[in-house]
Amino acid sequence: MMHCSRRGARANRSSKSSNMSTTLPHHTIIPLDFTNLILTQSNKLPHTHTWPHRSYDSPDPSHHPVPVIDLSAPRAVHLIRHACDKFGAFQVTGHGVPVQLLKEVEAEARRLFSLPMGRKILALRSPENMAGYGTAPVSLLCPKGLWSEGFTIAGSVAEHATKLWPAHDESSRFCSVIGEYKKQMELVTKKIITLILTSLGLTNDDVPWMKAEKEAVSEAAVVQLNSYPVCPDPAQAMGMAPHTDSSMVTVLYQGNVAGLQLQSEKGRWVTVPPTEGALVVNLGDLMHILSNGRFRSVLHRALVNGSEHRISVAYFYGSPKGVEVKPAVNLVGEGTSPMYGPVTWKDYLGLKGRHGQKALEMIKTSKVHGMLSVCKMCAMSNVVS
Ligand SMILES: O=C(O)CCC(=O)C(=O)O
After folding, report:
1. What integer pLDDT is reported at residue 286 of this predicted model?
2. Using CA of residue 22, residue 237, residue 300, residue 106, what is the dihedral sign?
3. CATH number for the 66-363 domain, one of 2.160.10.10, 3.30.479.10, 2.60.120.330, 3.40.190.10?
4. CA distance 304 to 235
5. Ligand 1, atom nearest to 280 Cα
6. Which of 3, 66, 225, 269 is the most exposed place for a label (fewest CB within 10 A)?
7. Ligand 1 pocket, residue 349 CB under 6 Å
8. Whose CA is nearest to atom 4 of ligand 1?
9. DSSP structure string for 82-95
């Protein structure tokens, strides 16, 4: 597997694309202009976006499927514990989010990404701030560009929407659909986190910030719209590079086009097939920390395809501003130390933005002393994934 690392990012900066007529340098936060992309030489991918052939890491068809759990089922907690232990992920039905709303969010995402590039970059995010249009943050650590575009909604939805659609009626539809989606996702995500805590033998009292003020809770969440355009050579492209999420949990709607894959404990890729009306739950690094290493945060990626434009919508739930996440006291064995030091979501995002998948290792308790000062000094804060 080709990894994303700071080394890759540095290499990109020094080797600018020789094919600038069809591409932008892939290390920028501006994605390829997919709506205007002119593919030369028999539909070949720009070399900046050509990953090594993935035939050696094809999915494992014999692997157990990622479980689909009905949240209202009496055995939900038991099934969730098993899924968190084995996969670090599961799908949920019975979540109460109307299917019609999911379809409307997907339609709004399609409307956004079909805007001309000139309009989308009016809402371009900056390297310091994740909110807005651009490539997925993970791409900054990758040796090759991603076949995707993203839009991160943090804070005011209206602020984003009016940059994209100056006409009120065009922006207000986006605001009302995304606003309702955020409300519904907050409810379902809190329900899911409560069930996961129960499966660990914990209650919301063990994690007091679960009862935090409403404003604090809304600061704990970010919505990420992802677009994966039809690709002329899907076997050599990458939609979203392998990564774990920094969040506590991520709840993902992936429409009805497959693309999401998780890595099993054996290191093989497992496809998560779209299931009508179901949402995918991925455990993130903060949950791994809270569970004192018991539940793993799942490594995942998104592939692209040659015939369908795929949209996914991720709801990242981290922790309220200023709250330090640390291993739950009840999960730390007597006489032993917690596996990780306390960290805020913001500081952890900074660490992840700089060090990618090595970030977790860096806050292991044996290393914790150097880390927090490193993290606070050079946090590339506000980077999500
Ligand atoms: O599109 C997907 O299936 C995965 C998206 C994802 O991993 C992300 O937004 O971090």
Report:
1. 97
2. positive
3. 2.60.120.330
4. 8
5. 3
6. 3
7. no
8. 302
9. HHHHHTSEEEEES-
Q: Whose CA is nearest to atom 10 of ligand 1?
A: 385
- Kindly give the confidence (pLDDT) of every residue in the chain, 385 residues in length, as a single tens digit, with 9 standing for 90 and above: 555 654 444 333 333 333 333 444 445 789 999 988 766 555 788 999 999 876 456 667 667 789 999 999 999 999 999 999 999 999 999 999 999 999 999 999 999 999 999 999 999 998 778 899 999 988 888 889 999 999 999 988 999 999 999 999 999 999 999 999 999 999 999 999 999 999 999 988 888 777 766 666 667 899 999 999 999 999 999 999 999 999 999 999 999 999 999 998 888 899 999 999 999 999 999 999 999 999 999 999 999 999 999 999 999 999 888 899 999 999 998 888 899 999 999 999 999 988 988 999 999 986 554 444 433 333 334 444 5
In the block, residue with structure tokens 């805007």: 115
The answer to whether the CB of 8 falls within 8 A of the CB of 14 is no
CB-ligand 1 contact for 152 (6 Å cutoff): no
Q: Is the CB of 139 under 6 A from ligand 1?
A: no
Please name which of 1, 2, 4, 81 lies closest in space to residue 355, comparing C-alpha atoms. Answer: 4
Our answer on whether the CB atom of 148 is closer than 6 Å to any ligand 1 atom is no
Output the pTM of the full model.
0.89
In sequence order, the 6+-apart residues with CB closer than 8 A to the CB of 164 are: 112, 115, 119, 120, 122, 123, 171, 174
Cα–ligand 1 centroid distance for 34 (angstroms): 19
Q: How far apart are the first and last CA of the chain?
A: 19
> What whole-number distance in Å separates Cα of residue 280 and Cα of residue 90?
6
Q: Confirm if 270 and 263 have CB atoms less than 8 A apart.
A: yes
Domain boundaries, the chain: 66-363
Helices 345-355, 368-378: inter-axial angle, 10-degree rounding: 90
Annotated active-site residue 310? The verdict is yes
Distance (Å) from CA 370 to ligand 1 centroid: 31
Query: Residue 245 CA: which ligand 1 atom is closest?
Result: 10
User: Is the Cα torsion angle 3, 318, 270, 200 positive or negative in sign?
Assistant: positive
Beta-strand (E) ranges in the chain? Answer: 68-70, 89-93, 132-134, 149-153, 221-228, 240-243, 249-253, 260-263, 269-271, 279-283, 300-302, 310-317, 324-325, 343-344
